[in-house]
């Protein structure tokens, strides 16, 4: 990875009376004691904690989870479409991102490496600190491993073959294979799981009681996910079981509580990003060097918001809507996840930002009969719209429901299809769907695979999981599955092999010797 590091140095004036032969060049360049540098910063436990806090802040800028990462994860799947006038965004779902325009995907590449750089600063400097609290040191190291592993997870998942920097001692890092990238992700997440506490409630130190820090459960959940993505089903099964056996996570009764400010950091949340309208300033966090005036909010809401409440750069597909309508609850009602996920002209009424959907869009037949995104919107009437760009809703990156369904998948893949029913039904019970054992008893392994795909599609719509699932299941290489996807979402008509990954930013290819562009670009 090509990285520029700017260090501020002070020049000390030297009297003209001194003979130049008596002055060495290094005497002319000295560190300004009034300006903090990387060399002078890492001295105390508190400095190390600030260092790991800086890694977290990389989650809140435009290239990561302020906005761009959600779009890159969501727009390629069969549940989402984009009619955005911004070509860089609309082209994501059409598998047509251009190497001539690095907008969005290039920002993501840049900003996740910023987070990796910050994690490596911790690793490069922490051993030089004499800690008063060894347990705190372990927690800091565990968080640095977790965050570097999480950021690298995204890099290998988005860009395939990428550099895997483990230190900042050199500025240029060679491109690695995807297998090497995954190996480092797994190593970091395993190290994190070994070092992190189950919670911060009972630790002693300045991080006591902190909400939002990475935990053992978060590290194990992502470790299992990385193992699953590499088709190491037995290892993933055992890892997910460790998360379940912690006994501290449970599904919240109300599905909607996972996507609002009202019930953040709930029992279902394993790891989430702590956005807030009450923290920081009001300037948007577009990137570069952070400043105190930056907001700690997300632009997901305005980007995805329904027409006239935001930009409507993404919308649900009718395939997603129809899948929600394909099964009724035990009380013969529609799946309650539908209206949490999709805003539409529901005959039973639909409230949106204090307006009745049918009345608000009455003058525009196209919008009246269209579908819009409601998940992660401030649409409960407390806000008039999303045009200030500043949503405070926490992004739930890992939910317990995901662990349950991934565990069910590993059970199915390791020959325990019958046992998978139990964990799928836990997720179905929350939304009052019929017992799967009754409606689809004795499924084969292949049938269970398709059922799990259906369950995941509805449970995690617009949460950045579906396209990752499509790719890892090999559907893009299966002509029958690809044709099915094309019938559900016309954006798949423009898919060509290799475009399941984004291009390496051309600036990176140009500046890093030996870097090769991804196939298909």
From TrEMBL:
Can you tell me where the transmembrane regions are? none
Protein name, per record? Starch-binding associating with outer membrane
Q: Does the keyword Amino-acid biosynthesis apply?
A: no
Q: Which PROSITE patterns match?
A: PROKAR_LIPOPROTEIN
Question: Where is this gene product found?
Answer: Cell outer membrane
Alphabetical keyword list: Cell outer membrane, Membrane, Signal
Q: Which family does it belong to?
A: Belongs to the SusD family.
Every SusD-like N-terminal domain range: 76-225
SUPFAM superfamilies recorded: TPR-like (SSF48452)
Gene3D superfamilies linked to this entry: 1.25.40.390
Q: Which InterPro entries match?
A: SusD-like_N, SusD_RagB_dom, TPR-like_helical_dom_sf
> Which GO cellular component does the record give, naming just one?
cell outer membrane
Where is each RagB/SusD domain found?
A: 268-521
